[in-house]
Design a protein that fits this description.
Chain lengths: ~170, ~280
């Protein structure tokens, strides 16, 4: 139990530092920066007590906002995907109830992990860029930035998960 | 009453979600309005300190470029100084009376420790704050041209509203005539900004220089901004004027902060006139 809290705290700090110090300066093709910190949401163990998860994901988003001067856009997008994570996971796995304690991303087959990550990443990026541009005139910019950044983010997240998350 | 408590307990998870979302969106909207983003910005102890540490390492690799800029500016200033000496040797040399003498602008130096240019609304962080005399609404420039306006300050750090920000509006004018306009940014390309509100009587050509107008109390007149890259003239009106910025906004090291010592006086007078 304590081990779980410790590993998630370390992952939280590591992902925030990775995001603000390295990934926010990548600027691929001049403007693409992956938002890899949301891996924390994907890997968080599923518990009965969901409120703690919602509040910590708010703090994850707001700490990214503090560093990148973006108001509350990351916080809003992160809280939203934290909220819809469980329904999406249930829909992807086609199970109404599953073993909460034994949840491990690597024990699920690849196509299901892929679907789960892609759906949440695209929703996150869409909310993020809509709030950042904050205007309906920029709809095409929002869609194109969401699309390209999502591809970049998904590739890095999948690589990261397969390289660094242990298979139990 | 009991039913309200029952309702809150039943939907507490959803209500918590709504509360957090409303909080996040409030911060977003506050960020969009000019002066009210008091809470979420990188001008604080933790984020400012971390960026400062990282920047100290990065700075080492940029010393060469920084030195080159300094040498260029030194050469320019030496040339100016030499021109002045010719005047001093003339016989109609005037003594500046200290009673009549007044200083309008004061410059100080700061370092950019966090630079942003890929977002729609970009904000920079400087390594100086109120302790070093920075305040909201001071101009930020470097030897090549303008960079932005100070937005928030903490005791040791401050944030700058970059010209690459949708909410930045800077008064500029053409160098060869007195037609004024506003410099803004459409978020597409970080090398070009857009010139708005240029009257249709103004004659402009590709390659014309744009300088700051000096109409607002922030920037002195005549600081370089950029040159006109292309423009569209339709329906008897300038639809879009793209300006190629002199500054490379992707690489900014040391900057100068301009403090207008007579800002208070000017603003007070203008307000007084408006109220009458």
């Amino acid at each position: 139990m304590n081990n779980l809290i410790l590993s998630n705290t370390v992952r939280f700090i590591f992902l925030v530092l990775l995001q603000v110090l390295i990934l926010n300066n990548v600027n691929l093709f001049g403007y693409l920066n992956p938002f890899v910190y949301i891996t924390w949401i994907f890997l968080f163990p599923i518990k009965k007590n969901k409120s703690v998860f919602l509040i910590t994901s708010f703090f994850l988003g707001i700490s990214i906002d503090f560093f990148s001067n973006s108001g509350g856009v990351n916080a809003a997008a992160t809280v939203f995907i934290a909220f819809i994570r469980l329904p999406i996971l249930k829909a992807v796995l086609r199970k109404s109830d599953f073993d909460y304690l034994l949840f491990n991303l690597r024990s699920i087959s690849f196509d299901k992990i892929f679907l789960y990550i892609v759906t949440l990443t695209i929703i996150h990026h869409f909310i993020l860029f809509s709030l950042e541009y904050f205007s309906s005139n920029a709809f095409t910019s929002i869609i194109s930035t969401t699309f390209f950044t999502s591809i970049f983010t998904i590739i890095i997240i999948l690589l990261g998960i397969f390289l660094f998350v242990k298979k139990k | 009453m009991q039913q309200i408590i029952y309702f809150i307990r039943k939907f507490r998870y959803f209500l918590l979600f709504l509360l957090l979302e409303i909080l996040a969106i409030t911060f977003t909207i506050q960020q969009h309005s000019y002066h009210t983003s008091k809470f979420v910005n990188s001008a604080n102890f933790i984020t400012g300190g971390l960026y400062n540490t990282v920047n100290n390492v990065n700075e080492f690799f940029l010393l060469r470029d920084e030195n080159k800029l300094l040498i260029e500016e030194n050469v320019r200033l030496k040339n100016l100084l030499n021109k002045k000496e010719i005047n001093y040797t003339k016989e109609n040399y005037t003594v500046i009376d200290t009673v009549k003498f007044f200083q309008k602008y004061e410059y100080s130096v700061a370092k950019v420790i966090k630079n942003n240019y890929t977002n729609r609304n970009n904000i920079l962080t400087l390594n100086k704050g109120t302790k070093q005399g920075l305040a909201t609404d001071l101009g930020v420039i470097n030897s090549l041209g303008i960079i932005g306006v100070v937005k928030n300050t903490s005791s040791n750090y401050s944030t700058v509203l970059s010209i690459l920000n949708g909410y930045s509006k800077i008064n500029v004018r053409l160098k060869n005539s007195n037609h004024y306009g506003t410099l803004s940014w459409n978020g597409e390309n970080h090398t070009t900004a857009q010139l708005e509100d240029i009257p249709r009587q103004a004659v402009i050509k590709v390659g014309d220089t744009i300088i700051t107008g000096g109409k607002s109390a922030i920037f002195p007149e005549g600081i370089h901004v950029g040159i006109i890259k292309d423009f569209i003239f339709e329906n008897n009106k300038y639809q879009q004027i793209n300006t190629l910025l002199f500054n490379d906004m992707t690489s900014i090291g040391y900057v100068q902060i301009v403090d207008n010592l007579q800002k208070k006086e000017q603003n007070q007078l203008e307000q007084q006139t408006n109220n009458e």
